[in-house]
Amino acid sequence: MELKPITPYCYEIPCTGNMRVPGRIFMNHRMAAQLTEAEALKQVANVATLPGILTASMAMPDMHWGYGFPIGGVAAFDWNDGVISPGGVGYDINCGVRLAATGLREMEVRPIAGRLVQALFENIPTGVGSTGSLKLSLKEEMKVLREGGRWAVRQGMGDPSDVECTEDGGCMDVADPSVISERALERGTKQLGTLGSGNHFLEVGVVDEIFDEATATAFGLSENQVTVLLHSGSRGLGYQICDDSLAFMNKHVKTLGIALPDRQLACAMIRSEAGHRYFAAMACAANYAWANRQILLHRARETFQQVLGIGPRELAMHQVYDICHNIAKRETHTVGGQPRTVCVHRKGATRAFAPGHPAICETYRQVGQPILIPGDMGTASYVLVGTQKAMDETFGSTCHGAGRVLSRKAAKKKSKGRAIHRELADKGILVKWTGRSTLAEEMPDAYKDIDQVVETVHGAGISKKVARLRPIVVIKG
């Protein structure tokens, strides 16, 4: 497939065949030279054929092959004439990242790191199908699906400031639980407050380097500060909503006369009954995920106080931000010089709104939206900030992580004969995990170089570096 460089950090797939817009891949020349993502590039081109797509079908530097849309994909569709697609959101709806900063320094945590990792592992359920101590009645689950993170805070699991510093205030108000299947509801009753499996994690880290002092200060970050970063989503409920929606959409799309290059791009017109139904169901899963991460952060706060024998004031843990990916949002963007209402699909991509945007919480509105980019468990994670260039070029979007380079099967093969936990311990990183193959599948070698990914979006100007976080304790599902 032809790739043309248009800037040092962006390459274009020209329109061919049924493509309505070009494809645009954000990567630097080094990443372009090493590119092996032929299937993902094809998916970028396939998305460009969908009705109502605007400007370009995009992919971020953490791009890799996904279901229908590539992971790392961004596409905006006209709200009146475009489509919405479950494949453009993904199975783990609102799989997102939450960062909290503490008043602690590394030297206060390092001596008790062993006890801390064990306590976090015991207090936060992990693994495939894991269930927590919180069991929901159907009535309470309906409240979670409508209210999101606000529900958890009202139950005493967190602080109102947590909700304020969460994307969309931790709630999409278009959620409608009546459109969700009984099976999805059943799966949601027992998994709230659980981390999950695969690439989900909770990580205690240290602010290793500050790149933008003024923005870091606005975010409440400083060098050598201990942080908590967690990554989880909507668990089995979100998976079931996606599965149910795809089963319906695969039949529904045949009635629309849309020629799809891939059946995994099954979709509905946004303004149709089918489109509204999916959007309302997806919003329920997004709200569940925000409630889930709110509870996980609350459990982490309690665990720190328990292990260190300190109170909330001494811990001084405050939420920096919670950002989601795997989501479709109704937003207003400038297209062709005119404001346009669009549906932005961000699948393995995150929002990167510029300073002054009204959707950013008041705390950060003047500096821009915080962006949280986790790396692999053996390297680093980054905090970035949104920019006007992202608003102009990517519908306010940037990357979401390092991105896989090895399949889980290939990673397991490469890890044979290695003790990944000992390799991490040699770097000063203690890890606890569930599942025989988790560490092998999630080893650092399975991911792209996070520094290269972040340098690309920073160089492209679609987000700017603020701080780097170094892990010291990790729990994995």
TrEMBL record:
**Binding positions (Mn(2+) 1):** D92, H200
Annotated binding of Mn(2+) 2, by residue: H231, H325
Describe cofactor binding as the record notes it: Binds 2 manganese ions per subunit.
State which Enzyme Commission number(s) the record gives.
6.5.1.-
Q: Where is the active site?
A: H400 (gmp-histidine intermediate)
Q: What enzyme class is recorded for this protein?
A: ligase
InterPro entries associated with the record: RtcB, RtcB-like_sf
Among Pfam families, the record links this protein to: RtcB (PF01139)
Q: Which UniProt keywords apply?
A: GTP-binding, Ligase, Manganese, Metal-binding, Nucleotide-binding, RNA repair
**Residues holding GMP:** 199-203, 325-326, 374-377, 381, 400-403, 476
- Which cofactors are named for this entry? Mn(2+)
PANTHER family, per the entry: RNA-SPLICING LIGASE RTCB HOMOLOG (PTHR11118)
The similarity annotation says:
Belongs to the RtcB family.
Subunit-level organization: Monomer.
Q: What is this protein called?
A: tRNA-splicing ligase RtcB
Please name the source species.
Desulfosarcina ovata subsp. sediminis
Highest lineage ranks of the organism? Bacteria, Pseudomonadati, Thermodesulfobacteriota, Desulfobacteria, Desulfobacterales
